[in-house]
Amino acid sequence: MPHKVENTPHFKLLNGDRKPYDEYYNRMVEFRKAKSNYMDSNQYLAFFDEFKYLNPPYDNEYISVKKVGNIFDSIDGDHRLSSLKKQGEEFVDVDVQDSSFVFKHKGFSNMIDIISVLENLDDYVIIKGHDYFPNYYDNDDLDILCGDNDAFFDTLCNRLSNQYPNFEMKTRDKGIRKHIDLYPNGFSRLNFRFDLLGEFPYKVHLHHTHNKIEVKEEYFDLILSRKVSKRVKTPPTFSQNEIDVWFPNDVDDLVLRFLEWVWQPHKTRHLEDFMSKFKKEEEFIETINEYTSVEVDKNYINNLFNKGKK
């Protein structure tokens, strides 16, 4: 996962917080990623006391980085980068590798701070989110129910254009939903999609097997009226901040995950998420039966969980 330098365990150690680096070093040793000369906390602190970047005989030992979008990811040189940051250096000479370089370990992309663009907005809820949110992988998306889809779409487009001018932004209006797709400069693969819905999508005809279900329009407004706010910390790729983000309440979250699976049964992730988060059985059953064409009772729920255990 990309880290802003000041959020790394290396930099935290130089500022007196030893625990993150000790945990990091122990993991590197445990997973056999630490070479014989890899520095533990005491060795790194001793290294820092004597460190002078590009001094002979290391005058050609540049830190290696790769430019990905508008982020420079270090390939080799995390200890030196943190040391330079601690020394107060704002600009550093580095060796920028070409785009053909591929990192050995593929993790979160996090090229965009996807929650910062939502700051101070409240006419929405994030639905069917992953547990790793607000981190994301390449080609990920974020589903959002919006009270005013047109206004929300315009606001996000403006914020993204201002915050990420080096990204190519492609938009698509599909009626019920609007897509905002973001591509880093020079990349043909989608990095991230905001998928905005101004109404429920269950009546849309899909080009694969799905079930027809009906949901009362008033339930859309109910979800937004009883949404809940959660404080979410930005990923370590960015300056550390906490932002209020809106989600459905627990029951509505379960309903939306369940309906997604009923609508498209091949999307088993939503059923698995529903089962792992399931609670408030009576409220869930009452909501499903009152606002949707799907009928459930306690026997149905019990059978669903019993099948899931097999």
Number of strands: 10
Task: Provide the low-confidence segments as ranges.
Answer: none
Largest sheet: 5 strands, mixed
Report the β-strand fraction as a percent range: 15-25%
Shape descriptor reads: elongated
Gyration radius from CA atoms, angstroms:
24 Å
Tally of helical segments: 10
Fraction of helical residues? 25-40%
Number of domains: 2
Overall residue-averaged pLDDT value: 88
H/E series: HHHEEHEEEHEEEHEEHHHH
Through-space gap between termini: 35 Å
Oligomeric state of the chains in view: single chain
Strand order of the largest sheet: 4-5-8-7-6
SSE class: alpha+beta
Question: What does this entry show, briefly?
Answer:
Helices cover 35% and strands 19% of the residues.
Your description of this structure?
- The strands form 3 sheets. The protein has a 5-stranded mixed sheet with strand order 4-5-8-7-6. The chain has a 3-stranded mixed sheet with strand order 2-1-3. Strands 9-10 form a two-stranded antiparallel ribbon.
- It is built from 10 helices and 10 strands.
- Strand 9 and strand 10 (242-247) form a beta hairpin.
- It is α+β, with helices and mostly antiparallel strands and 310 residues long.
